[in-house]
Write a structure and sequence with these properties.
Strand content: 15-25%
Low-confidence stretches: 3-27, 764-769
Number of helices: 25
Helix content: 25-40%
Distance between the termini: 36 Å
Largest sheet: 11 strands, mixed
Shape: globular
Structural class: alpha/beta
Length: about 775
């Protein structure tokens, strides 16, 4: 998976001020400023070794968001030095720009010198490395008898460890992180100053003699160090809390049904599956099928949770809940996790929070959840949850990925804040050609998440020294994110721009691939449409240069009952769909439902494909109520995949496409009738029918618009079966198909789409620059 994190080396812009070039060629001193992800990645040690090997005198230092190198050399030597930087930069670094200027310098030898605040230009280039997983060298040290860091709970180096979760401000120096509270011992200080050591200038360097301490609290007793670890290991199978780099987790044995059920009770999670941390890749392979790409993800520096297909399931029934189609698997990503995994081949490890609440990052709060807590005295500056991915895309972009910027087109040089959406909330900043996204924050309907959302905005603005000039948000006037964005715009007297929900979905794909004009399918559970209705089955034409979006087709509107209840009660959604197509209802509250729909009491018109998935899941007897978001649709996908694996033939069914009022409208009466029969193959047949309908519409739209590029986005496309069917079908029809790759297709990617749509629009002066028409007109 390409992280999209900055420019490739061959795209780096190396500029030399023209006024200084001739002077530089005759002078013997230059300053080289390297911008990008160059702090917290071992860049200064790299430059030191490079300069000393070349016999050059000078200095290197951190400066706000850059690394500044001063060399006593001529212009040709400087150019050669820069080329060597480009070719051999540290693995975790990303270089965006390199500039050279003439200076006056007298130096003897080469030294790493004290950091400086940097100028305004440097501050505009701040990039923060995400927390990265423990590297192989540090992990090996944990188990080497001769290593002084044997069994060291906080082992890391210049190539790994916490960064974003501990950074207070830039430049990235120890004093500007939560590690500043811990003084290095003499041995660590010697390593820190030793150019030949891999911990040379490693700001988080520590050992068992210095740095954070480990504690375990249980039954009113407090233990420290090795004793704390041993006591926690003894209690872990029955359930404990463990402090990670970005927040607390709850852990227990995946084989103990009672322990897993106790964790469900603590979290208030009835059915949603738990993730499992495995000792190593060999342990994962015993349980799950692993493709080459999935193996790469599991072992990557991000170490995300990867959703895998189980081969066998030896775990307690409560681990997977009622969903046995995928298991969230990941490998240890800190020294403490690695040491725990050395004792257990697999453990349940899930964020310590009540369902829908933020992950707990405060030592005091965790004791309201459990009294058995393994923790340390290093402050978590900002909470970061685990990332969740599949082989195809990211589902939750957080630890390991955020806040790495994405390179996107910004033709008018907009400097804006994008608020994102309310579900799976994530916001971002656009500056120059760089979009910096926050980690996943949760659902803003939860008051604690909303409060965290506001704090996180303030915190990241401060960390990245970012002051927006424009504010962008979802067009829904009652979204919490939109209302918060409007407050910011009012407070700072800034232009304010709403972007329609499904336009943002498609624009997020366009942003990732640098697309100018596309046809798009935005399928999701729903969002505010340009006609004021509930959209979610949309075919759009989006144009980046004009910032416009035209609706060219959609799923036929169905009146749904009860707003939030329509999302949760899939039996009710099914009844509404059946009523809409004059199909006989068989529901215990049939008369009440029909009366409400006929009189349109508490109803809303929806074109959501997500709600159609809910209805079909209900009709097939798979899921009558969503216990968590997307449960019914997920179980429908798993049922279809099971039918395909078993060789069950898909039931033939179709969705009709009619041209009504200059719009391609898809109806689904045949699907509803066939699925009401509950025959084997209906789940798979439904997926094929949706695929056929989408392909039919795109073929017609290509004929009308002459556009061959297609973007697919929205939460429904988290369904890997549906996505693969549609992608393969469109590719056979010679379409160029584009998907989300580095941001989620769900609402977690909205902020990127909002920013891209706004960046292509004319200068914001009101609320209607990004246009989305509901009637097919431009």
């Amino acid at each position: 998976m390409d992280n999209g994190q900055g420019k490739r080396i061959n795209e780096i812009n190396t500029s030399v001020c023209s006024a200084n070039t001739s002077v530089c060629s005759a002078n013997t001193s230059v300053a080289i400023t390297v911008c990008g992800l160059v702090q917290g990645v071992g860049f200064r040690p790299f430059i030191y070794r490079l300069a000393t090997a070349a016999g050059l005198a000078g200095t290197v230092r951190n400066a706000a968001g850059a690394v500044r190198i001063e060399l006593v050399c001529d212009f040709l030597q400087a150019q050669n030095f820069i080329e060597t930087i480009k070719k051999n930069a540290p693995a975790n670094s990303v270089i965006n720009d390199i500039t050279v200027e003439e200076i006056f310098l007298c130096a003897d030898g080469f030294n790493v010198v004290e950091s400086e605040a940097g100028n305004e230009s440097d501050k505009k280039n701040i990039v923060c490395l995400p927390d990265t997983a423990i590297c192989s060298k540090c992990e090996s040290e944990l188990f080497e008898n001769s290593s002084r860091r044997r069994l060291h709970f906080f082992n890391d180096c210049t190539e790994c460890g916490p960064r974003f979760s501990i950074a207070c401000k830039f430049p990235y120096d120890r004093a500007n992180t939560s590690m500043g509270a811990f003084e290095m011992c003499a041995e660590c200080a010697a390593e820190y100053c030793m150019p030949s050591d891999r911990r040379f200038r490693a700001e988080t360097v520590c050992c068992p003699k210095c740095g954070p301490s480990l504690f375990y609290s249980s039954g009113g007793m407090l233990y420290k160090g090795a004793e704390a670890f041993d006591k926690a290991i003894y209690d872990l199978p029955g359930g404990i809390a463990v402090k990670g780099t970005g927040g607390y987790h709850l852990a227990c044995s995946p084989y103990d049904q009672n322990a897993v059920m106790h964790l469900r009770k603590l979290k208030g999670r009835d059915a949603k599956p738990f993730a499992v941390m495995f000792r190593d890749i060999a342990e994962v392979e015993k349980i799950c099928k692993i493709s080459a790409e999935e193996r790469k993800l599991l072992c990557s520096r991000e170490k995300p949770i990867v959703l895998l297909e189980p081969k066998v399931n030896p775990f307690a029934e409560a681990v997977a809940g009622n969903a046995d189609g995928r298991l969230g698997c990941f490998l240890p990503y800190t020294a403490l996790h690695a040491l725990i995994a050395e004792r257990f081949p697999a453990i349940v490890l899930t964020s310590a929070n009540r369902e829908s609440s933020p992950i707990i990052d405060c030592d005091e709060k965790i004791f309201s959840v459990t009294d058995r807590v393994l923790y340390n005295d290093r402050k978590i500056v900002r909470a970061v949850e685990d990332s969740v991915v599949t082989e195809k895309f990211i589902l939750r972009r957080s630890r390991g990925y955020a806040p790495m910027p994405l390179a996107i087109k910004n033709p008018r040089g907009a400097k804006l804040f994008a608020a994102g959406g309310d579900l799976k909330a994530s916001f971002g900043f656009l500056q120059s050609g760089r979009f910096t996204m926050s980690p996943h924050l949760g659902d803003l309907e939860n008051a604690d998440v909303l409060e965290k959302y506001g704090r996180y905005i303030d915190d990241m603005c401060s960390l990245f020294v970012f002051v927006p000039e424009e504010i962008v948000c979802d067009a829904h006037p009652k979204y919490f994110s939109s209302m918060h964005a409007k407050k910011i715009a009012g407070k700072l007297s800034l232009p304010f721009l709403p972007v329609y929900h499904h336009h943002a979905h498609i624009a997020s794909v366009m942003a990732e691939h640098g697309l100018r004009r596309v046809l798009g399918a935005a399928f999701d559970g729903g969002g505010y449409g340009a006609d004021g209705c509930h959209w979610g089955g949309e075919f759009l034409l989006c144009d980046h240069e004009s910032g416009s979006c035209r609706r060219l087709g959609h799923l036929r509107y169905t009146d749904l009952l009860g707003a939030d209840e329509a999302v949760k009660n899939t039996d009710l959604s099914a009844a509404c769909f059946l009523h809409s197509y004059d199909i006989t209802l068989s529901h215990p509250e049939k008369k009440i439902i029909e009366a409400a729909l006929n009189t349109r009491v508490n109803t809303f018109a929806s074109s959501s494909v997500g709600r159609l998935f809910d209805a079909v899941s209900s009709l097939l007897g798979i899921c009558g109520r969503n216990g968590y978001e997307g449960e019914a649709a997920t179980l429908l996908q798993y049922a279809a995949e099971a039918e395909a694996r078993s060789g069950v033939k898909p039931v033939k069914m179709k969705m009709n496409c009619n041209f009504e009022n200059e719009m391609h409208v898809i109806s689904c009466k045949d699907i509803l009738e066939k699925c009401s029969e509950k025959k084997p193959g209906c789940a798979l047949g439904f997926h094929h029918a949706v695929c056929d309908a989408a392909a039919d519409v795109f073929l017609k739209l290509r004929g009308e618009t002459k556009i061959n590029d297609v973007a697919l986005s929205g939460g429904v496309f988290q369904n890997r079966l549906l996505l693969s069917l549609i992608e393969n079908r469109l590719q056979k029809e010679k379409f160029s198909v584009f998907l989300n790759k580095n941001v989620p297709p769900n609402d977690g990617g909205l902020a990127l789409g909002q920013a891209y749509a706004a960046a292509g629009a004319e200068k914001i002066g009101g609320e209607k620059n990004v246009r989305c028409s509901a009637d097919g007109s431009s």
